[in-house]
Amino acid sequence: MIPGNSLAPPAGKAVFLDRDGVLNREMGDYVWRPAEFEVLPGVPEALQLLKAAGYYLIVVTNQAGIAKQLYTAADVQACHAKLQAACGGVLDTLYFAPAHPSVSESLLRKPDSLMLEKAMARFHLNPASCWIVGDRLRDMEAGAKVGVPGILVGATEPVDYARQTPDLLAAAKLILEVSTV
Question: At which positions is Mg(2+) bound (predicted)?
């Protein structure tokens, strides 16, 4: 900003996306082999809709299997590359938390919010113009810590949460509907 100029550039908007259960099929404990990594139906369309509306698309995922030495950061990146290819390269970045409380602590790990905070600083995001979409309450808690509203998708058990949709495509349509009101 130019000194004396009160007109700051507008802050950006983003959708933070949990990975397993939101973007790809949840397959038990860990999803890390690209051959088994399956993008969920409707995900490419949902991401295209959000990107066309001007949202940054930022993956924020806990990857405890790294701390447990079940797989590596390179395995996570390989799955991300497959996801990018399936979705037309629209994802802006991937943040992952490689820790697990049984091995190591980290503020990156949701329900903490450091992955979101890093992205907010990097992309100059306005939390009030952002969303987090996840399949667990810890995703919603991470968003709440930094003032980002959330949408819970595909809840496998009854949960009392204000915004719930069956999948990412329904969440994307809700975001676009609410954002144009």
Answer: 18, 20, 135
Q: Is 135 annotated as a binding residue?
A: yes
Q: Is 18 annotated as a binding residue?
A: yes
The bridge status of strand 131-134 relative to strand 150-153 is: parallel
Edge to edge, what strands does the sheet with 164-165 contain?
Answer: 93-97, 56-62, 14-17, 131-134, 150-153, 164-165
Looking at the annotation, which residues are catalytic? Answer: 18, 20
Ranges of residues in the chain whose predicted pLDDT is under 50: 1-9
Q: Which of 57, 43, 77 is nearest to 170 (CA)?
A: 43
Q: Is 92 annotated among the ligand-binding residues?
A: no
Q: What is the pLDDT of residues 96-128, one digit of tens each?
A: 999 877 777 788 999 999 999 999 999 999 999
Set out the domains of the chain in order of their start, with CATH numbers. Answer: 18-120+156-179 (3.40.50.1000)
The pTM of this model reads 0.90
